Each structure stands twice: as structure tokens, then as C-alpha cells.
UniProtKB/TrEMBL annotation:
MF (Gene Ontology): glycosyltransferase activity
Regions crossing the membrane: 31-50
Subcellular location: Membrane
Any GO CC annotation of this UniProt entry: membrane
InterPro entries: Glyco_transf_92 (IPR008166)
Highest taxon listed in the record's lineage: Eukaryota
One Pfam family linked to the record: Glyco_transf_92
The protein's name in its UniProt record: Glycosyltransferase family 92 protein
Amino acid sequence: MRNLIATFYRLPLTQRLNKVIPAKNIYHLRLRNIIIILITVIILACITLNNKLRSENDLKVVNEEKNSRQGDWQIVWEENQEQIWDGSGPVKGLKFMVYSAYLDENNERNVIRIIALTPTKGMLPNFFCHLFTGDDKTGVIPFGEPFPAIIEHSGYSQYLYGGSFILCPIMPHLTLRNTTKPYFLALSPIREKFDGRRILPVQKIQRRRTSRENVFNFQYHFAICVQPTYRYDSVLELMEWLEFHRMMGVTHVTMYNISMGAHVSCLLRSNALKKNLDVLVLPWGLPIPSKQVHVNGQVAQSNDCLWRYRGVANYVLFLDFDEYLVPNYTHAVNYAQLVERLKTVPVDEKLNRSLPVAQFLFRSAFFGKDLAREFGTRRKLALPSTDSSEKLRLDDLITFTRTERQSFMYPAKVRSKFMSIPNQVIEPGVHYLERSEPRSLGEVQVSPEEIGFVHHYRDYLCGVRECSTLKKVTDNSAHFWVAGVLERTEELWKEVRKECNLGLEMLQS
Ligand SMILES: *[C@@H]1O[C@H](CO)[C@@H](O)[C@H](O)[C@H]1NC(C)=O
Ligand SMILES: *[C@@H]1O[C@H](CO)[C@@H](O)[C@H](O)[C@H]1NC(C)=O
Ligand SMILES: *[C@@H]1O[C@H](CO)[C@@H](O)[C@H](O)[C@H]1NC(C)=O
Ligand SMILES: *[C@@H]1O[C@H](CO)[C@@H](O)[C@H](O)[C@H]1NC(C)=O
């Protein structure tokens, strides 16, 4: 067949036009070519795959893979993984998982801090840190010799897995400061080799200033970290929550997505939202069953979020979508004023005023839907949109309708929420500061109830108990902002409903 084509093309053009190849031959010709192409593709794919599976320090592979590995959990090591590397695995065993890595560089320590989930039980292998420098064009180059890592556990060790830091202490001879290139890292229990498919980019943190006061002047003033989000699609509630906190001065929000619904995802991707607020949604696909770790790996998530904002934001608030940090408006109408006000509060003797505070702690009170009848009737989403001219009303807002709260306020450390000063904190914890920078002996300052606390809007408080026996108070302090929140939410709603095809209908019961 090939000869036939070759001969054909050697003929002068006029003759070629006359000499038509029979249709049957053309069919065979095409089939043969397709088969040849298919075989070539398969062979190439096999070669590529084989290359990727090789565990040698193949730097080209590292370079190709590194971009696809950003921003979600990856398993760096599974017990008995040698068998995977031999090609005889996979083997079920305890896993070591990493999410992100931050270069924590200061006078006391130079370390790459890896956000990880590690087993709380059993013998832990010794890991080695393999460091690389380089960029996308030149590929990555090993940066010094591999060196041993340290695993540092956080709390909640009653679960099979726990949030932890894996630390790669940088040897003094590796001067990192004179280069701006990104660094990449591979963890491996073997000094001589690492898995080129499991590479983490190392994020550089702006160097902290040595400051006795909490006077930082970073790019952002207030940011929020939201715990991992699971099965959430309440788009209207989310809009209100975002707009309330934006009114308070929050400009950045970071969320961790396990399974957000389609409508919430549409809102979070919309230009209407991005115009006013910087929202980062990171994937949080845990590679283990959720019951093996405390609240979907919340310890690791709060560690990641804090380090993400270190050197970037002055204050980071840790909240969930049904929680609002509401200041007492006679003391502060936004978070900048709230922080200033809290700095003037007399502190207990344990706090040393000449040292910076690491965290402001806010107590929580429950606002239950079943405590009392709501003000008005909130509506829920109707899909698709029915009446496109319909506007939002005050009684679509939870901060307007929900005014009854349990008079009991949780004591500090129980269900409390906080605002961290990222540069003073190492581990923010879940309800109370876990670990601060050694310098910040000031630690935690609890906000007096009178100045501000967290409104936690729950649906059901009473459960089997009789609601009438629960001591409650009417608290409509959030109404101070409700007109502004409505205006902003309405504006966002108008644009998002077009983009995401949303509508409203009355909430049943
Ligand atoms: C940084 O500078 C030091 C001293 O000037 C040099 O020895 C070292 O190789 C430099 N490191 C890099 C990564 O360029
Ligand atoms: C969140 O994750 C879910 C499930 O993987 C996905 O369908 C959704 O699009 C994601 N949303 C965002 C905003 O990333
Ligand atoms: C407060 O901190 C400063 C600076 O470290 C120290 O000199 C002082 O003794 C501390 N005061 C108390 C009461 O601990
Ligand atoms: C707000 O502050 C004022 C003045 O200090 C006080 O009278 C009021 O009770 C406070 N409100 C709340 C809800 O604590």
C-alpha cells in the first residue's frame, strides 16, 4: 500500500488527476493508517506511563506533575508503600497526607512547615525532606542534600488521624533569602529516592516584622477562614453572611470545599461576588473516611488557613456560615473599631500588656428557630426563577427574623470563636488558641459579652426538651446593620440570580 502511494505521488500532476485509486484501496489505506496511528499512540502512552511510574529522581516528571498537584490533599506515604514502588502494590495501610507547605523563616527558626494529617497511633517512619528550586521553564533542581523531617502532632489524638505539622528544618548553609524562585518539596521515608508524582509547592511568607505591639500593616485588614464545607447549598443565607461580614470590614474569605452544592458554587464563582470580595475556595477532598478524623480535618484546615494569611492579613476570623461575629454597636460598628475597643479593655493579671495579644476570643450564644416565632416569613430558593422582578425583603434575612436567643452564653473555650493575629500564632486551634509564637505571651484576650459575641443561628435548640423551660432573651442588636445588609445582598442577588438562574418562594412551615 505504501508503495502504491509513493508511486502515485511520483507521477506528474495531470497524470495523478487521471489515475484514481479504487475506492476499496482507499478504505484499506485509511484503516491501515488508523491502526498504525493507534498502535503508535498506545506505545507512546505506555512509555509515558512507565516513565511516570518510575520512582527515580526523574526531574522532568517532577516538573510536569507539580502543577496538577496544588491545592488538595495528597497521600505522600502509605504504610508498606515499598510494594507500590516495586510495582506489586497497592497495599492498604496507614496513610500520611499533606496539603500545603509554607516557608516559615525568622530569627528563631528556618523551617518549611507542612500542613499534614498523620496517624496518631503506631510507629511513624522517619521522613526526609527533598527540596528543589527552579521554575516552570528550567524544571526543578535539587536544592542541597535531603534532610530529616520532624512530625509535630496537634490535639484530638482520640481519632485515627490527626492534624499535624511536618517540619523540614532548613540547614543553615542553605541560604534561602537571596533567591525569589519558588521551592518544591517531596517527602519520602527514603533518603535516596522520592516519588516524583508527589511534589508540593512551598509558599513563601512575607517576613514578619519584630513588633512589640499588634501594629502590623499587612495588605489585608480582616479575613475569614471557614471550616471544611460539607453538603451546603443555602445560597441566600450565604449571601447575607458574606455581605454582613463585608460590612464589618472583611475583604478576604477562604473556604475549604468538600461538597458544596451547585447554587452555592455558582455564587462563589460569580463575577458579581468577586467584584466586592476576594473569595478563595480550596478543594478539601480528604482521602480517608471522615469519621477517622476530628470534624473533617478541621485542625489541619485551621492551621492551613492561618499560615495562608500569615504576612498577608492583620486579623483572621474563624467562623462557620451560621455564625456572625456581632459587635455591640454602641461600642463598635465594624471590626476595626471592635479591635481598637478590645485593646482598651482591662485584662486579667495573667495577660502581660507589654506583649502582643495572639487571639481575641468571642463567646457564643444560640439563636434558635424553635425558641420563638420568627419575625415575618423567610423565603427559600425556587428553581428556576419564576418572577425575575421580585426583590429581596427584610424578612428574607436571618439577622432580621431571628431575634430570640438562649440567655445562657457559653463560657470562653466552649464553642467560642476567635480572631487570630496570624503573625503571633502557630496553631489557632478550633475553639481556643492551641499554640502561639513564643514571643506573644499576651496570648488570648476574651471579649466581654457587652462588647461583642458570636450569634450562632441554629434551627433547633430545644430538641426533646420543652422550649418554654429554656431561659431566653430578645436580642435584636444585629438589626443595627440590617438595612445595609439588605441593600448589599439585594444588589448581589440581582446579578447572581441572572448568572445562576435563581428565584424565591415561601419557606414551607
Ligand atoms: C545564596 O547566596 C550564597 C552566598 O552569596 C550562595 O553561596 C548561595 O549559593 C546562594 N543560594 C542560591 C540558591 O542562589
Ligand atoms: C465544590 O465541590 C463540589 C464537589 O466536588 C463541586 O461539585 C463544586 O463545584 C465545588 N464548588 C466550588 C465552588 O469549588
Ligand atoms: C511583661 O513582659 C515584659 C517583656 O517581656 C517583661 O519585661 C515584664 O517583666 C513582663 N511583666 C510581667 C508582669 O510578666
Ligand atoms: C451594649 O453596650 C451598652 C453600653 O455599654 C450596654 O448598655 C448594652 O447592654 C450592651 N448590649 C448588649 C447586648 O450587651
